[in-house]
């Protein structure tokens, strides 16, 4: 079984160095300057993994703009994208305006850190405070979370929009497990190796997701999905996870690839606990390396307190490196048709008073009318609306693909194609 020291050392390796922390702090300061320039009286806040300290080297920084006074988030996103472009601090911008929560995504040029920014949705900061309190209460939460985030990320199962498990839902799952074990006193709380194995066993083999939901709120760990209206006739296999901040919200309902997630958990359980698998590794190979594969980011990283720890030294014999396909994106991507003559909103010091001051003057309509469509086509990729219909089509496509490949995979560790079958305990 994977050792406690191996998990702790790997988490130290993932933890940000002082230089990385300083670079992220500077990036946040730079982005906040642009936001405050447009809306001087607004209140931008960081939330998510950067605020809780549970971020990976590749994690985004989540920001919400509160009290901006704008009535239309789409207009605000457009204004912010223009300002970031004019300041020259952002690249690979995507404006996703017709999602349930409209956001702008971009990479801050100097640090290379990705940002997700939204407007006037305050549940993110509230959730971050809940998680920070949970980390203080459950010291095991941080190392387990980091290991599992890397595990899911390497299998493309960490993004909710593609059916994976998001960070908030994952944390709720871990907390629920820790609460349940604490009450039953089934495992020593300090044994991270046993806790990791138990997580894979519980969510990969034992939990009956058809009928039972998971909660980390107060002392109730499980509930009948039907009692909260969380059952789905078309997708009964979905995991249901009660949002600890909003109990009537199911934060697992969009993880439509849970069959693949469950299968990956089951394979991880076998790799970490099967005596034959462990003995076959030999004395010089890492047990944790059977579920964590070297990828380009991890291989290039120099971590640890002294900055001289490498992945190869930390998890020897972890297997062949994973390959990533990162295509270059255009500078600005939008999913709505905009009028380039529309003035940018600019706050005058009052959060509730947003005037129509433009960063540039209107050009003559005679020239603009002839070239407006051409300019939009050349400079902006207007993509399909990310509405509920689009998500539904994406989900159906993904489910068909998983059905076709249900018995195919690249290797026994769940990388590449994922198994479509899983054992369903009841």
TrEMBL record:
Protein name stated in the entry: polynucleotide adenylyltransferase
First-level EC class: transferase
Region (Disordered): 339-426
Keywords, in A-Z order: Magnesium, Metal-binding, Transferase
Compositionally biased region (Basic and acidic residues): 377-395
Any GO CC annotation of this UniProt entry: nucleolus
Coiled-coil region(s): none
Pfam families registered for this protein in UniProt: MTPAP-like_central, PAP_assoc
CDD domains: NT_PAP_TUTase
Family membership noted in the UniProt record: Belongs to the DNA polymerase type-B-like family.
Domain (Poly(A) RNA polymerase mitochondrial-like central palm) ranges: 6-131
GO molecular function: metal ion binding; mRNA binding; poly(A) RNA polymerase activity
Cofactor annotation: Mn(2+)
Biased composition (Basic residues): 360-376, 396-410
UniProt-listed Enzyme Commission number(s): 2.7.7.19
Biological process according to GO: polyadenylation-dependent ncRNA catabolic process; RNA 3'-end processing
Residue ranges constituting the PAP-associated domain according to the UniProt record: 191-249
